Amino acid sequence: MEKTLVLIKPDAFGKNHAGDILKIYEDAGFKILAAKVMKMTREVAAKHYAEHIGRPFYPALVEFMTSAPLMALVVGGDDVIKKVRELNGATNPAEAAEGTVRKLFAEDKTKNAVHASDSKESAAREIPIFFGACEIFD
Ligand code: CMP
Q1: CA-CA distance, 20 to 43, in Å (whole number)?
Q2: pLDDT-based confidence at 67, cuts 50/70/90?
Q3: Which domains are seen in the chain, by residue range?
Q4: Count of other CB atoms within 10 angstroms of residue 42
Q5: What is the rounded CA–CA span in Å between residue 22 and residue 87?
Q6: Is 52 annotated in the active site?
Q7: Distance from the CA of 110 to the center of ligand 1, in angstroms?
Q8: Position in ligand 1 atom list of the atom nearest CA 112
Q9: Alpha carbon 45 to chain centroid, angstroms
């Protein structure tokens, strides 16, 4: 089964939207294969967002992602990587389509409710940062 890493970020998790977001993925036919509530450390942030180190928005991104608990998920299903990104909507919520997670729950480009892997390679790299193989039920 194709798998993707999703993070319900501190903004959406703190506002109790985890259930709403899980329902959007489940209603689309996807399975929750792993889930945990955790506080991201700066070390995990640097690993997960390695490609963004040095970008102007990186310090604010790390500050935000390590500020409060988030929910990490592995979501599975056919074409899940592409489809979950469609369900999430554009990175900038101002540009997100109606009904998408970011249109419904995001505030701005940093507090944008969710992260999802953008390719098979990213999913394969990101999932083991958050989950051991025995924590994923497929
Ligand atoms: P995410 O999918 O978690 O991956 C990288 C994150 O960086 C992205 O979502 C946004 O939250 C953040 N990001 C990307 N571009 C910008 C930007 N121009 N300004 C602020 N944050 C950004």
Answers
A1: 29
A2: very high
A3: 2-135 (3.30.70.141)
A4: 11
A5: 11
A6: no
A7: 6
A8: 11
A9: 13
Q: What's the rounded Cα separation, in Å, for the pair 106 and 95?
A: 11
State the pTM of this model.
0.97
Q: 68 near 7, Cβ under 8 Å?
A: no
- Six-digit token string for 33: 């294969």
Neighbours of 136 (CB within 10 A): 15
| Angle at which helices 18-27 and 80-88 cross, to 10° | 130
Question: Minimal CA–CA distance to 15: which of 111, 124, 108, 98?
Answer: 111
- List Cβ neighbours of 2 (8 Å cut-off, separation of 6 or more): 76, 77, 78, 79, 80, 81, 120, 123
Ligand 1 center–CA 22 separation, angstroms: 21
User: Which pLDDT does position 25 carry in this prediction?
Assistant: 99
Amino acid at 123: A
